[in-house]
Amino acid sequence: SCLPENYQMKYYLYHLLTWPQLSYVAINGKGKIVGYVLAKIDEESGEVLHGHITSIAVMRDFRKQALATKLLLQTSYAMAQAFGAAYVSLHVRVSNRAALGLYVDTLGFEIKDTEKGYYADGEDAYDMRRPLGPTLEEVKQLNEEQIEFWRSRGHELPEATLPKSASTQK
Fold it and tell me: From CA 23, how far away is CA 137, in angstroms rounded?
């Protein structure tokens, strides 16, 4: 188990059946799932269409290998490509310093609000958001199809950070 939150199986199935393009797993060399991201599209009335990370986890032995970054990059790309989402949101425990470092320092999320008593144990959560588009760190991991997609949406991708195979293509 990777997370302190326990969802019922029907919750996972609802996400997978409704937004199959947005959930991904990371698998080790032995075919074992070592991480996942569960995501959805929020279509609240009066709000801009946006994606939401419902849950993301990587097993402890597989952390510090950029798996969470890769999972978030892939689902963010799918949110923008398949649904035209403008931004992605997530909630994180205020005490989860490691996750906050990843979200703020690596992925460019910003805290929008604090939701009091959000978690079942009463802990508060930060409501975090990030416009969709690759960060400088993520640009290094884009494949050619993703590079072309972000460029077609008007994103300037710094040549020095692109993978070598894509840095000369525009």
Answer: 21
Give Cβ neighbours of residue 103 (< 8 Å, ≥ 6 apart).
90, 92, 109, 128, 130
| Angle subtended by helix axes 67-83 and 144-152, to nearest 10 | 50
For 37, 53, 85, 96, 103, the CA distances from 126, given in Å and listed in that order, are 18, 13, 21, 10, 11
Rounded Cα distance between 73 and 89, Å, is: 13
User: What DSSP character marks residue 112?
Assistant: E
Which residue shows structure tokens 């949406």?
153
56 strand-pairing partners: 37
Q: Given a cut of 80, is residue 19 above it in pLDDT?
A: yes
Burial class of residue 29 (count of CB atoms within 10 Å of its CB; 0-12, 13-18, 19+): exposed
Give the mean pLDDT of 143-150.
76
What's the pTM value of the predicted model, to 2 decimals? 0.75
Q: Residue 81: which of 24, 29, 133, 10 has the closest Cα?
A: 133
Q: DSSP 3-state assignment of 69?
A: helix
**Mind giving me the DSSP string for 19-66?**
-GGG-EEEE-TTS-EEEEEEEEEE--TTS--EEEEEEEEE-GGG-SSS
